[in-house]
Design a protein that fits this description.
It holds the Pfam family cNMP_binding. The two termini are 21 Å apart. Helix 1 packs antiparallel against helix 5, helix 2 packs parallel to helix 8 and helix 4 packs across helix 5. The chain has a single domain, classed as Jelly Rolls (Sandwich), CATH 2.60.120. By secondary structure, the protein is α+β, with helices and mostly antiparallel strands. The chain contains eight helices and six strands; from the N terminus they run ααβββββαβααααα. 25% of the residues are buried.
Length: 174
């Protein structure tokens, strides 16, 4: 659930409520392709349940994603075609929010835009840092525990982010 915590820690309760009402809850079965390789992504996805596999063009699994992960966020910053695919590894339920709705909200609500873009920056910086360490660059030692540690700023709001995600799950389940 760590990635959603990075994003939801920067947003307000109202922002998370908007996200949950702006999107559609979808269910996909094992083997379905959510996002193909070399395509443009037109939605952002929050994994509510299940497991997804991020795969290279050759089909090698890079990473498995579970509840609380976010997919398609890069398309809001750079709509270039994907370099990986995302496949359903175990039946999954996701919240899908079309980029068009997010972009309209960003254009009409500057306070939301500031919080949302900061959340994306925190999220992408964390991903870049972990990828750099995983590839063996940098001076930090990568161990399972340090990779999952949150910085002091996020620790102050992580409990709120967790509560926001729990409320989203409950709202979308009923």
């Amino acid at each position: 659930m760590r990635k959603v915590l990075l994003i939801f820690s920067e947003l307000t309760d109202g922002d998370v409520e908007w996200l949950s009402t702006a999107g559609d809850r979808i269910h996909l079965e094992k083997g379905a392709v959510l996002i193909g390789n070399n395509v443009r992504v037109d939605s952002i996805y929050f994994v509510l349940d299940g497991r997804l596999a991020i795969k290279t063009a050759k089909g090698d699994v890079i990473r498995l994603l579970e509840s609380g992960e976010v997919i398609g966020e890069m398309s809001l910053v750079d709509p270039a075609p994907t370099v990986v695919s995302v496949e359903i590894d175990a039946d999954a339920t996701l919240l899908r929010i079309p980029d068009s709705k997010v972009r309209a909200k960003l254009a009409s609500d500057t306070a939301f835009a500031a919080r949302f873009y900061r959340a994306l920056c925190v999220f992408l910086a964390d991903r870049m840092r972990n990828t750099t360490l995983r590839m063996g660059y940098g001076t930090g030692a990568l161990d399972k525990h340090s990779a999952d540690e949150l910085n002091d700023d996020l620790l102050d709001t992580v409990h709120l982010a967790g509560a926001r995600f729990d409320r989203m799950l409950k709202r979308l389940a009923g």
